[in-house]
Write a structure and sequence with these properties.
The complex is a heterodimer of chains A (175) and B (654). Chain A is an all-alpha fold and 175 residues long. Chain A has helices spanning 4-9, 12-16, 33-45, 62-76, 81-92, 106-139, 145-159. Chain A folds into two domains: 4-96, Cytochrome C biogenesis protein (Helicase, Ruva Protein, domain 3, Orthogonal Bundle), CATH 1.10.8.640; 106-162. In chain B, the strands form two sheets. In chain B, strands 2, 3, 4, 5, 6 and 7 form a six-stranded antiparallel β-sheet that branches. In chain B, strands 1-10-9-8 form a four-stranded antiparallel β-sheet, covered by helices on one side. The two termini of chain B are 51 Å apart. The chains are: A mainly alpha (175), B alpha+beta (654). Chains A and B meet through helix 1, helix 2, helix 6 and helix 7 of A and helix 8, helix 9, helix 10, helix 14 and helix 15 of B.
Chain lengths: 175, 654
């Protein structure tokens, strides 16, 4: 689906950059399985600089292969994961990081979701408090006495294990 | 000649849309039935005209009329017929033509099915629908005309991008557009309601089926795209958090929220203003998605700069409609007083929580998608936001949603008791815990993903089953007589669970093997034995292919003979991978052939993908749930009454 992009605005040139070789090649794999696993994990976090949102682990492009080999070279030289990533970022820029660093302005990005959730829940709580006051103020909870009695009866039935047809989404009794 | 007629029809459609936008709106204001009545025939004529334009372009593609610039750029005489047809929308101009044709189609359908609507509301809905149309007709005719001729037509075309010559992708855009554009009807209803200053249960009952249909199409469209990525890209990935994917995912999330909040308006006359806002936002995100895809602004600022005219135009459309409708909302929302009040523990609250979680999830996707753009403009930093961010920031909201869903679905309206609802679901909870324990025992690695996904999925599926069972008052014979809306809801909720299981298990348990194999070699992956029998060169209709034969056995018993392919399309000079996939309920076998190696062997990639099909089976169940709800009796009754020609009464169908 990612390649739908060219479909829709015909950026065929972007794909033409891709060499026919698919992703990780057998000759790239390190003999040490533990090291290779780390290489794969790091590769999934690094963006191929010339592709549309592919990691170097998935990409067919030549530069992605170069980067994969570079990652493995650094790992074989004894670098830690962070050192390898730092090495690549120092050469290719922040752009290759799929996981933007959680610092500085990027904090906005990370905090936006939780902040929005808290805001939403706060609005909900306010509305309930206001609704609750309205109920105390005599307007009631929108139920007439008759409705309240029916509701109590219905809840009672539900409690005793009887079916409770009226809590359904079917819009009440049907003919 | 036919192309010119198509062009002419498109221009006419634009003028009809202008009339449809102006006259009924004015008529509704003046309470002039004659002017309001213009809307209905105008909507139908506009659709006929744009459909004719689309047919004219399709004709040009099918007959390979290379005097048309668009056909030359995107087609080839050797291409199979189905891809000549899908080539019509496999490009910018054609896909926009499809966009407006579907828009006009929804307008015409809206006119056809809405004869029972109050006259002023109907006139306003169709008028707003036409305004959207006018904007997009202008966009096509002024910046993206599909009917341009070439001075000297070439002998043959430049072919469609081979990646798009695929059944999955042939039908992916039309479904997606049906979804995007379907949300325009909800938008039109919302804006019309704001102009009227009135939202009630009947309004919600009109909006829901359109939203349902749009959401259903979006579900199918997104699933098709993800399925295509799975089998075509050669390593079994199915979701990439790419801007274009996110563009379709955001409206899907908001439409899902809208479905649920419209239910509250329909049953309980609460959440009115919020529902109207969601309807506006759902289509707003469709427009944002269209902008992201069309302008290319997010792939690269350069793509935008290459074609600023189009990008700026669509940005103007986006700004106009969003700013206009939101201003209207700010002015009129206070008129939409809610009458239904509900207690903190009630189905309403559960649906509000659903809305909060879905909206926040959509917001996270939105922020993550646009952050690179914001960072470049504000801080001059070129950075990327990819799967690690989205997986970490998006998933928690989906997990919370999955946790509360079964409880919310069985809570009564107005006021419920949490303890009571939880007691009714103890069976589902036990099953979920058992599934997690099973997952933990089966797996070899120690990842929490698989057991957690299993638990959530089983909780959702068992919860949906429990929901039906309670609704039928624990009696089998009543189960079959339940309204289709109940079955639809259970199906969609269970589908969510099925997808959760598929995604979690596939991510956690995939086995991968990359190696060089010579012909005759045998190797084991995940308990299966694979042998490479042969590699042959063959010729397709418009490509050359390298086809391997791989035999798979398990414990000496043959399982499958698979034929992974590598294709080369000479006209576009592009290679594609065609993975061989052996589908199963519990696992897919997935084999890809790569390049020949120096020593005469071939690079072979093999995957065992557990529960892969569950991802899309869940999406199908969700779409099916939408379809079931859409055919529920209360909508059919409304349609039947209309057909019976009952005196135009404004009472809503019950």
């Amino acid at each position: 689906m990612r390649r739908l992009l060219p479909a829709v605005f015909v950026a065929i040139h972007a794909i033409a950059l891709a060499a026919p070789a698919p992703a990780v090649q057998p000759d790239e794999i390190l003999p040490d399985p533990a090291l290779e696993r780390r290489a794969r994990e790091i590769s999934a976090l690094l963006r191929c600089p010339v592709c549309q949102g592919e990691s170097i682990d998935e990409s067919d492009a030549g530069v992605a292969r170069d980067l994969r080999l570079l990652v493995r070279e650094r790992l074989a030289a004894g670098d830690s994961d962070q050192e390898v990533i730092g090495y690549i970022v120092a050469r290719y820029g922040e752009f290759v990081l799929f996981d933007p660093p959680k610092s500085g302005a990027n904090l906005i990005l990370w905090i936006a979701g939780p902040a929005m959730l808290i805001l939403g829940l706060a609005v909900m709580a306010t509305l309930y408090r206001r609704g609750g006051r309205a109920a105390e103020g005599g307007a009631g909870d929108g139920l007439t006495d008759e409705e309240s009695a029916r509701l109590a009866a219905i809840l009672e039935r539900g409690e005793t294990g009887g079916g409770d047809m009226s809590h359904g989404g079917t819009g009440g009794p049907r003919q | 000649m036919i192309a010119e007629l198509g062009h002419f029809a498109l221009i006419l459609a634009a003028f009809v849309a202008v009339l449809q936008a102006v006259l009924p709106l004015w008529g509704a204001w003046r309470r002039d039935p004659g002017l309001m009545a213009v809307a209905d025939p105008a909507a139908r004529i506009q659709f006929l005209l744009s459909a004719f334009a689309f047919a004219a372009l399709t004709h040009a593609f099918v007959t390979s009329d290379f005097s048309l610039r668009l056909v030359t750029l995107n087609s080839h005489s050797m291409k199979p017929l189905i891809y000549k047809i899908s080539g019509v929308w496999g490009n910018h101009e054609g896909s926009l033509l499809l966009w407006v044709t579907i828009l006009a189609g929804f307008g015409a359908a809206c006119a056809a099915f809405s004869s029972r609507l109050p006259a002023t509301l109907r006139a306003r809905v169709l008028s707003v629908q036409a305004m959207i149309g006018v904007a997009f007709y202008a966009f096509i005719l002024l910046t993206s005309n599909p009917f341009l001729r070439l001075q000297t037509p070439p002998f043959d075309g430049q072919d469609l991008n081979p990646l798009l010559q695929d059944p999955g992708l042939a039908f992916h855009p039309p479904f997606l557009y049906l979804g995007y554009v379907g949300l325009s009807v909800s938008f039109s209803f919302a804006v019309a309601a704001l102009i009227e200053g009135r939202v009630d249960a009947a309004w919600a009952r009109w909006v829901r089926p359109w939203t349902l249909a749009a959401w259903m199409f979006l579900t199918v469209g997104i699933a098709l795209g993800s399925w295509w990525a799975y089998y075509e890209l050669g390593w079994g990935g199915f979701w990439f958090w790419d801007p274009v994917e996110n563009a379709s995912f955001m409206p899907w999330l908001i439409a899902a929220a809208l479905l649920h909040s419209a239910a509250v308006v329909e049953k309980r006359e609460a959440l009115k203003a919020w529902t109207v806002l969601l309807a506006i936002m759902a289509f707003g995100f469709s427009l944002i998605g269209t902008f992201i895809v069309r302008s290319g602004v997010l792939t690269s600022v350069h793509a935008f700069a290459n074609d600023p005219e189009r990008g700026v135009f669509i940005l103007a459309i986006l700004a106009l409609f969003l700013a206009g409708s939101l201003t209207l909302f700010a002015l009129r929302a206070s008129a939409l007083a809610a009458s239904g009040v509900f207690a903190p523990v009630s189905r309403e609250t559960a649906l509000v929580l659903n809305n909060v979680l879905l909206s926040v999830a959509a917001f996270v996707v939105f922020v993550g998608t646009l952050w690179p753009l914001a960072a470049e403009m504000l801080f001059d930093r070129k950075l990327s936001v990819g799967p690690p961010f989205f997986n970490a920031a998006f998933s928690p909201f989906m997990i919370a949603l999955a946790l509360i869903l079964p409880v919310g679905a069985i809570l009564p309206w107005k006021r419920g008791r949490l303890g009571h609802a939880l007691r009714q679901l103890w069976g589902a909870a036990v099953l979920a815990v058992a599934a997690a324990a099973l997952g933990w025992t089966v797996q070899t690695g120690r990842t929490i993903l698989a057991p957690a996904g299993l638990a959530l999925g089983v909780w959702l599926i068992a919860g949906a089953a429990g929901d039906l069972w309670l609704r039928a008052a624990r009696a089998l014979r009543r189960l079959v007589r339940l309204p289709r809306a109940d079955w639809g809801r259970a199906s969609a909720h269970a589908g969510f669970g099925v997808s959760v299981i598929g995604i979690a298990l596939m991510l956690a348990w995939t086995v991968e093997d990359i190696r060089v194999a010579a012909i005759g070699d045998r190797f084991d992956v995940g308990g299966f034995s694979f042998s490479l029998d042969a590699v042959e060169e063959t010729q397709g209709p418009n490509y050359a292919a390298t086809v391997a034969t791989v035999r798979v056995a398990r414990g000496g018993v043959p399982v499958a003979v698979m034929h992974p392919e590598k294709r080369f399309y000479p006209v576009a000079r592009m290679p594609t991978t065609e993975a061989a996939i052996h589908n199963g309920v519990l696992r897919d076998l997935y084999v890809v052939i790569g390049d020949p190696q120096g020593d005469g062997g071939w690079a072979i990639r093999t995957y065992i993908k557990p529960f892969a099909n569950w991802v899309w089976a869940g999406a199908i169940l969700m779409a099916l749930g939408g379809l079931l709800s859409l055919t529920d009796r209360r909508y059919r009754v409304a349609a039947g009454a209309r057909r019976a020609g009952a005196a135009a009464s404004a009472t809503p169908a019950e």
